[in-house]
Amino acid sequence: MKRAALMCSLFAMLCCGLAAAGCGSSSEKVSGQEDAVLTSAPNVPPPITRHHPTKVVVKLDTREVTKRLADGVTYTFWTFGGSVPGKFIRVREGDMVEFHLSNDPSSKMPHNIDLHAVTGPGGGAASSFTAPGHTSTFSFQALNPGLFVYHCATAPVGMHVGNGMSGLILVEPKAGMPKVDHEYYVQQTEFYTAGRNGEPGLQPFSMEKAIREQPEYVVFNGSVGAVSGDNALKAKVGETVRLFVGNGGPNLVSSFHVIGEIFDNVFGEAGTTVTHNVQTTLVPPGGATIVEFKTQVPGTYLMVDHAIFRAFNQGALGMIKVEGPEDKQVYSGKQNDEVYHPEGATIQTLGAVAPAEAPAKDKAERIERGKVTFNTICAACHQSSGLGIPGAFPPLAHSDFLNADKPRAIGIVLFGHSGPITVNGAQINSAMPALGLTDEQAANSLTYVYSQWGNAGHEVTPAEVAAVRAQNRAKK
Predict the structure, then answer these.
(1) What 3-state class would DSSP assign to 406?
(2) 450-476 average pLDDT score
(3) pLDDT at residue number 215
(4) How far does Cα 304 stand from its chain's mean position?
(5) 188 pairs with which residues across the strands?
(6) How far apart are CA 178 and CA 242, in angstroms?
(7) Cα–Cα distances in angstroms (integers) from residue 51 to residues 10, 54, 173, 255, in the given order
(8) For the residues of 158-191, what is the DSSP string, one character each?
(9) What is the tens place of the pLDDT at every residue in 165-183?
(10) What gap in Å lies between CA 233 and CA 12, rounded to an integer?
(11) For residue 388, what pLDDT is reported?
(12) Model confidence pLDDT, tens digit, residues 40-99
């Protein structure tokens, strides 16, 4: 039978190990030292066989790399270790973890790391804020067993996570984990591109879509098809599969499901409670789960987010290919290896388009509306005081760069900017994405900024914004 007595006893052992270890402290003596083995999805580092805690040195870097998001679509990902999701980290409960975070010199942005496995303010974020070309080091003790998300927490946090900066760290319980035949790493993430799903070329990040929680892509392991075809997960009939499933978000809850399988064991939210015979399990953004099942019938099984349009229209679909003999008693249908193909990404619409907001009547109303746009989109980087973050985000207060050239400021708001600029005598090398604002929104937000913090008091009109937009199109 599928729910074999042996499996039950094995996972009862795991539950006992997790529960016994879950007191949040460790009295074992830390001895020895080792370098952590880090792996890219879907691979997982080997199980830990030692029976004592040790000092584990983790060396992880942050890199901004341009890679495939979908066929014909590329994206500049912000990454831990050059991949999305970030490298899988595996330690043991009680281990003393010495963490080295390096930011590649080619990066445009500072980065840090918030590990949900850390007990301490910010999960390590404040201790690991790292400028390009630098390395930060901090330590923590892995007190609680479980599977935990880590992510970048540099402002604006949502943008860093939304550009791919999340991963998983497993803290094995003292008693270890029962042996299985396969362990795989699967992480769901969303991407908010300026272009619509399938629009070719290098796509920039859209802050507007991210705030509205309207992704163009929802994917497993960083890109459409990353766990499909030749990259499908592999197993044989009769083997036990353990999936470490994370949700980097930044916004959507995942309804994780494997079509044609029932999870024998689910460790909900990767905690100490096990549930049996589960069809679909929820994984919150910034959360994780562990699912296990024994394969009994050969074929191709689809992993999906059962918010089903995400699977068949936005990319949240992967495959597990199981080989071996058929069992007609378990499943009598004709077996083959054909895939139920995704339906494509065409979006169908019904009804009228929402009406556009009426233009601001005067400068005072433009400033009031611009304040709302600024506080929603811009304040995370430039701060509500307009002072920015030294070395990372330029100040808007008393800004000679801003006040000197109004059309240039409009162009940066519309199209973004990357590279060094000099503001009030200080050089800052960072990146600002295109924000996807309408002419009205761009005019309002700039008028607000020009009216604050000792700036020049310019009014920017939608007509001026439209003129800069048209000039940009003419150059292309």
Answers:
(1) helix
(2) 93
(3) 97
(4) 17
(5) 220, 247
(6) 10
(7) 18, 10, 10, 36
(8) HHHHHTT-EEEEEEE-TT-----SEEEEEEEEEE
(9) 999 999 999 999 999 999 9
(10) 26
(11) 84
(12) 999 999 999 999 999 999 999 999 999 999 999 999 999 999 999 999 999 999 999 999
| Cα separation values, 41 from 92, 186, 305, 311, 318, Å | 20, 7, 18, 19, 13
Angle, vertex CA 65, rays to CA 60 and CA 67, nearest 5: 125
* Dihedral sign from CA coordinates of 126, 131, 137, 143: positive
Nearest Cα to 99, choosing from 149, 130, 140, 154? 140
Q: Which two tokens stand for residue 417?
A: 């900017």
* CA distances for 226 relative to 219, 316, 343, angstroms: 8, 10, 17
pTM beyond cutoff 0.70: yes
Is 221 in contact with 227 (CB distance < 8 Å)? yes
What is the length of the chain? Answer: 476
Which tokens go with 450? 């020009």
Chain mean pLDDT for the chain: 89
The alpha carbon dihedral of 283, 433, 70, 77 has a sign of negative
CA-CA distance, 99 to 102, in Å (whole number)?
10
* DSSP code at position 281: E
Per-residue pLDDT at 3 exceeds 50: no
Q: What is the pLDDT of residue 430?
A: 76
Residue 369 · residue 398 · CB < 8 Å: no
- Supply 420's token pair: 């060094």
The pLDDT value recorded for residue 13 is 44
- Looking at residue 18, its pLDDT comes to 47
Task: With CA atoms as reference, report the closest residue to 296 among 269, 329, 274.
Answer: 329
Contact in structure between 293 and 258 (CB atoms under 8 Å): yes
Coil, helix or strand at residue 443: helix
Cα 465 to Cα 414: distance, rounded to the nearest angstrom: 8
pLDDT in tens, 308-350: 999 999 999 999 999 999 888 888 775 454 555 665 555 555 5
Please tell me the distance from the alpha carbon of residue 371 to that of residue 446, in angstroms, as a whole number: 9
DSSP bridge pairs for 96: 55, 141
- Cα end-to-end distance, the chain, whole Å: 65
pLDDT in tens, 373-423: 888 778 767 878 898 877 678 999 999 999 999 999 999 999 988 788 999
